[in-house]
Amino acid sequence: MSRPPVPRPQPASQHTVRRHNSALVLDAIADAPGSSRAAVAARTGLTKATVSSLVDRMIGADLVAEGGAQTRSGPGRRGTALHLSPTGPHGLGVEIGVDYLATCLVDLTGRVRARWLRRSDNRDSSPARVLAKVASAVRTAAREDVPIGGVGVAVPGLVEVAGGTLRVAPNLGWREVDVRGELTRRVSLDVPVLVGNEANLAALAELWHGDASDDFVHISGEIGIGAGIVVGGRLFEGVSGFGGELGHLSVDPRGPECGCGSRGCLERLAGQDPIVRAAGVPGVEELLAALAAGDKAATAAVRTAAKWLGVALAGTVNLLDLPTVVLGGTYARLEPWLRGPLRAELDRRVVSAEWSPVRVVASSLGAEAAVRGAAGSAVRAILADPDPYVTAALA
């Protein structure tokens, strides 16, 4: 029986080689700001002529900027320092929260240029109405005097990242929403639009800009609860990209019904709404004031939430052997009162706690993590593959 012919490898085209080498060069500059062309050549293994040609293209596209001449102790010509350009393409991040819309602009280094927050109860609005607000927020951000290189959108639900489709968002009541297509149609921006789960994007922001290690679980505690899992410095999303739905882990099978169809889900017992309700206060600001005053009902509400969080997180740590829990969103603000009872619950339930105690820390980015991660993802897509942007900018 004859075997089908095996396709023969084809030589790389000049464009393919340039595309690969452009990414190498920009990565070297991003990792070691202030490097000269000669240093980049040594770091990448490319010739100085190749590096110089690629750097000149990226300077022309405003991805790279030249600084002053480097100091040099020995003889020879001093090289010019190279940096990512602060005026180059920015990432525009959007977060569709259950009760707010957030947007921000970050430059190539991840520095935030501007941010906006709009309170909005999106549970009572159709996808079309909310996405119209998102489009308006994007247009507002785009009026800033900087180029937009890409848009990242964080949403609270299961996302098919490749197609930009939100499959389901129980807390919004949305199903099968083409977020990328709808936003692209409503806003005339000829740039890539990336859509991702808000907890995953928050975890990436924490990895890029926070104080956590390369192995942690980031808990986004808002009205819903999501988890972003980072292992070995890489986001773990599961086979289909739907991992991290910690808020819909049932911790009490006889508990209250959840919008996902199950009972006793973590977010129904330890989310923002049940904590505020149990504390007998109207909102998070009042909850924080009551906690600071030592209010017994507020303290008990947070301790109860910590218990249920401990049940869910102990299972996560026992399964994945993660050394750190990062409390994000509202949990970051509640960390002074959550941390003690949560640590006690983890010490009691995590099998390896005697030898490897779980570290519990507050996110340094807090409620901004998801929108920062969305904007950062748009920037990092350019950094990972700059040649298409450069080619379009120089056309």
UniProtKB/TrEMBL annotation:
Keyword Ribosomal protein: no
Domain of life: Bacteria
An MF annotation (GO) of this entry: kinase activity
Domain (HTH marR-type): residue spans on this chain: 23-66
Pfam families noted in UniProt: MarR_2, ROK
Keywords (A to Z) from UniProt: Kinase, Transferase
UniProt keyword annotation of Transferase present: yes
Cross-referenced PANTHER family: BIFUNCTIONAL UDP-N-ACETYLGLUCOSAMINE 2-EPIMERASE_N-ACETYLMANNOSAMINE KINASE, ROK (REPRESSOR, ORF, KINASE) FAMILY
Family to which the UniProt record says this protein belongs: Belongs to the ROK (NagC/XylR) family.
Record protein name field: NBD/HSP70 family sugar kinase
Organism: Saccharothrix longispora
